[in-house]
Amino acid sequence: MEKRKLVIPNDIKTAFKEAGVKKGQAIMVHTSLSSLGYVCGGAQSVIEALLESVGEEGTIMMPTQSWKNLDPKTGVYWQEPEEWWDVIRENIPAYDKMVTPTNTMGAVSEMFRQWPGTLRSDHPARSVAARGHYAEYLTENHDLSDIFGDSSPIGRLYELDGYVLLIGVGYDKNTSLHLADVRAEYPGKHTVIESSAIRVDGQRIWKNYETLAVDGGDFPVIGEAFEQTGQVRHVSLGNGILSMMSQRALVDFAVEWIGENRK
Question: Over the stretch 117-140, which tens digit does the pLDDT of each residue have?
Answer without folding.
Answer: 999 999 999 999 999 999 999 999
